[in-house]
Amino acid sequence: MSRTKSRDHGVLATLFLYEMKRLLRDTRMILIAVVAPLVLFPFIIFVMRSVERSEERRLTETVYQYAVVGDEAQWGRDIVSAALALEVNDPDTSRAPVHFEEQQVSDSDALLNSAEIHLVVEALSPESYQMIRAAEANADADTTRTDDDGAALELPTLRLRYRGQSDFSQNASDRLGSRIVDLRSQLRDSVYTARGFSVAPAQIAMVETENTASAEKEAGALLGLALTPFLLLLMLTGGSIMAVDAISGEKERGSLETLLTTAAARSDIVTAKLLGIVAVGIAVAVVNILNLLVYVVLGVVDLPETFAVALSALDLVLLLLLFLPLTVLISSALLLLSGYAKSYKEYQIYFFPLFLVFLVPSLAGMLPGMDLRSAIAFAPIAGIGVAVREIMVGEYDWLFLLIAFSSTGAAASWAARLTERTLSTERLISQSDLDEADLVGGPALFPRHVLRWFAVMWVVYLMISLWFGEDLGIRGQIVVNLVFIFFGGSLLMIRRYGLDPRAAFALRPVHPLVWLAVVIGAPAGYIVGIGLAGLVNTYVFPVPQNVLEAFGDTLLGDEMPLWQLLLFLTIIPGILEELAFRGVLLHGLRKVFGPVGICLVVGAIFGIFHVSLFRLVPTAYLGVIFAAVVLLTGSIFPVMLWHFANNAIGLVPAYMGWVTEETAVPWWGYALGLVGMIIALGMIWSVRSPYPDMRKKRPKAFE
Amino acid sequence: MTEAASVRVQALQKSFWDESRGEIRAVDRIDFDCRAGEVFGLLGANGAGKTTTLRILATILNPTGGTASLNGHDVRSEPEAVRRSLGFFSASTALYPRLTGRETLEFFARINRYPADQVSRRVEELIERFGIAEYADARVEKLSSGMKQKISIARTIVHDPPVLIFDEPTVGLDVMAALEMQSVIRELRDEGKTIIFSTHIMSEAEKLCDRIAIIHQGRILALGTLEQHRQATGQHYLEDIFVHEVMAVEGSP
Question: What is the ipTM of this complex?
Answer without folding.
Answer: 0.91
